[in-house]
Design goal:
Elements lengths: L6 H24 L5 H23 L9 H22 L5 H8 L2 H11 L7 H18 L10 H25 L6 H22 L12 H27 L1 H4 L2 H17 L5 H17 L3 H16 L1
Helix pairs in contact: 1-4, 1-9, 1-11, 2-3, 2-8, 2-9, 3-7, 3-8, 4-7, 4-11, 5-6, 5-7, 6-12
């Protein structure tokens, strides 16, 4: 049975809406004062269980020691470090601003690929990066009336988080062999993250027992872990079936839905600078997203280089 032509659109819409609500879940999770390391540690446990089940159901390899290096890189750069930065910053920012700042990931990804000479210089996409940076400045420079006196610092901290996610994207794109199943990769990486974070939590005296999961904060972390698992699955399925260019449009949905979820759940009200930032960020994402023609030309060049 052939899939309906609207199915890929439903995939990016679903994954974007789910990722968008995780920003609001993060505010709920941090509202009760739980330590960021405790939040992150339980999140990786729950995410690992999600992908463990996915691997068992699909009969996918659980853990291949030959891929240990890849697991460790993702556990450090794509999970542990950004999780901690994110949970430290979340109580000081609104869900809408978290969504805007994290949406710089595609911009940073192109910038890194450009610096490493994996991408060619395209004026339109460079303009997209400039607009993305302007969008962040629109959040940092004006007074947003946020609850935290040092909101600009926390915004920049989440931008660093986005930079780490972009490094993860480039590593997955260029450093991970195509034969590694994404479910195995995410299970193995979260397993390594558990081995990193729980001993550190014990050493620092962070005590969030399993009964904590029944609290509002714990339920929010469960929502983040399970929601992210489904969102990752839909996103990577879209990459596999419709290509990375089409799947990259998910960033628009994440930005818009993150702001809307914050308004629905917390009745957030944003200044005119925030709304201008949203518009500028979306324009930047439009410019930085490669055309199908660009990607086809790139594939032809790679094929030519490999055959010569």
């Amino acid at each position: 049975m052939t899939e309906h032509r609207l199915f890929p659109y439903l995939m990016i819409l679903g994954s974007g809406v789910i990722w968008g609500v995780t920003f609001s879940f993060a505010l709920i999770a941090t509202a009760q004062g739980a330590h960021p390391l405790g939040l992150s540690a339980w999140q990786v446990v729950l995410t690992a269980l999600f992908f463990l089940a996915a691997c068992l159901v699909s009969r996918v390899t659980l853990f291949d020691p030959r891929n240990l290096r890849h697991y460790v890189v993702l556990a450090l750069v794509g999970i542990t470090a950004p999780n901690l930065l994110y949970y430290y910053a979340a109580p000081h920012l609104s869900a809408g601003i978290l969504a805007i700042t994290v949406s710089t990931v595609p911009l940073f990804t192109y910038a890194i690929m450009l610096v490493l000479r994996f991408e060619s210089i395209i004026a339109r996409r460079l303009a997209g990066i400039v607009l993305g940076m302007i969008a962040i400045l629109l959040l940092v420079v004006p007074d947003q009336g946020l609850s935290s006196d040092d909101a600009s610092f926390w915004i920049l901290l989440v931008v660093v988080c986005a930079l780490l996610y972009a490094i993860e994207n480039v590593y997955i794109s260029r450093g991970i062999p195509a034969h590694i199943d994404i479910r195995e990769f995410l299970f193995g990486s979260n397993l390594i993250a558990i081995l990193l974070q729980f001993p550190l939590a014990i050493y620092l005296g962070v005590d969030e027992s399993w009964t904590w999961l029944a609290t509002d904060a714990g339920i929010a972390v469960i929502g983040i872990a399970v929601g992210s698992g489904f969102a990752y699955s839909m996103f990577f399925y879209t990459i596999k079936t419709s290509g990375p260019v089409f799947a990259s449009q998910c960033a628009y949905v994440v930005t818009i839905s993150g702001v809307i979820w914050g308004i629905i759940i917390f009745a957030e009200q944003h200044s005119v600078w925030v709304w201008i930032s949203v518009i500028v960020m979306l324009l930047g994402l439009v410019l930085v997203t490669p055309d199908e023609e660009d990607e086809l030309e790139k594939v032809k060049k790679i094929a030519t280089a490999e055959s010569s």
